[in-house]
Each structure stands twice: as structure tokens, then as C-alpha cells.
Amino acid sequence: MLGPAVLLLAVVVVRAFFVTPFGIPSESMQDTLLVGDRLLVSRTTPPDDVQRGDIVVFDASEAFNLEVPQRGVFQRLVEAVESLAGKGQPTDYVKRVIGLPGDHVRCCAADGRLEINGVAVTEPYLAPGARPSVIPFDVTVPPDRFWMMGDNRGASSDSRAHLGEPGGGMVPGADIIGKVWVRYWPLDRLGSVDQGQIASVPRNGE
């Protein structure tokens, strides 16, 4: 029979390399993800395979210039146990990938929509009548960086909120923890999460 230490090690390995639970703490991704939703996040998607429209969890400490709290061994152990129920680190964010490396992203186009590489795109995951952004922006995403936005654009602290900081709010690919895979709670919302892919647009400069 496996002892508690072996079981804990197995759980840690699975979380580190394959799948991680994550709970939604805010309204920034409504109505796609609601406060209290619990998700499984696949860690097997490399940054090169991330697509526009994917919903991902990432460590925002570098990109969003967040203070990382210092924790002792006991606190780390407590956090490891809490993570089994989907409680992430305070610096873990869930957002939608809007701009890939090299993309020119701006808001807004003449028709009021988000524009990527000169093409105005429809975003089916936004609430009816919602504006793509009340904050105007015009950015080109550097290599190995991603532009992230929440679906609830009026209540999301995302890449737009960090434009004037070092890095311009762009998220390094290495900081992406994984792609949202499935919702396991609440039971009446059990199932895969619709990623709401953005229609294909040309590469910047084509």
C-alpha cells in the first residue's frame, strides 16, 4: 500500500508536468468562466502551439510587475495542499490569448472591433453589446511574448493595464502554465471549455 508521502509526490509530479487544478477567483473572464468555477489546466501545450483565442493560465509576476510574496517551508506545504483544490498562487492569472508573437494588435478598428494585423476580428466570447476595449491601444507583440485580455473587458486587469511598465504587459511564453482544458465544478457546468477561437488572420506584414 502506498504511503502518504508517495501519494503526495505522485500528485506533485502530475501537477508539475501534466495537469493542474485552478479555481476562478474573479469576474474577469465572465461570461465564459464564472467566479467559483474549477478547471483542469493542461500543462502539455508548448508555447509554440498556443493559438489566438486560447484560454490559458500564466504566472503574471514578471509581465505584470507583481510582487511575489516570500514564503517559508510550512507555507509552501500549505499552498501545495490548497492547490489540490484549485487554489492557485496570487500571481497566477487566467486570460485569453489575443496576440501571438509578432502580431500587431490595436483597438479599435474603424468599425469598433479589435484589429489584428490589419484585420478587424469578431470575438464571439464577448457579451452582446460589450466593447472590445474602453482603453485604446496599439501594440506589436515581441518574439516569444503574448498579449492577454480577459473576456469581461471592463473588469479585467490584463495586458492593457500594464502598457506603461517594463515589458508593456506582454507575457513571456515560458510563463504560460497551461491551457484551460475542462471545467469540473460546478457539476451543472461540467465539461470542456469552449476556447472561442479567433478567425485566422495573416501574419504581420503579409
Automatic annotation (TrEMBL):
Cell compartment(s), UniProt: Cell membrane; Membrane
Give the record's membrane topology. Answer: Single-pass type II membrane protein
* Keyword Glycoprotein listed: no
UniProt keywords (A-Z) are: Hydrolase, Protease
PANTHER family of this UniProt entry?
CHLOROPLAST PROCESSING PEPTIDASE (PTHR43390:SF1), SIGNAL PEPTIDASE I (PTHR43390)
Enzyme type, top EC level? hydrolase
Q: Which CDD domains match?
A: S26_SPase_I
List, in alphabetical order, the Gene Ontology terms for molecular function in this entry. Answer: signal peptidase activity
EC no. given is: 3.4.21.89
Domain Peptidase S26 stretches: 6-185
InterPro entries according to UniProt: LexA/Signal_pep-like_sf, Pept_S26A_signal_pept_1, Pept_S26A_signal_pept_1_CS, Peptidase_S26
Q: List the catalytic activities from the record.
A: Cleavage of hydrophobic, N-terminal signal or leader sequences from secreted and periplasmic proteins
Query: To which protein family does this belong?
Result: Belongs to the peptidase S26 family.
Q: Specify the species.
A: Terrabacter terrigena
Presence of keyword Nucleus: no
Record's protein name: Signal peptidase I
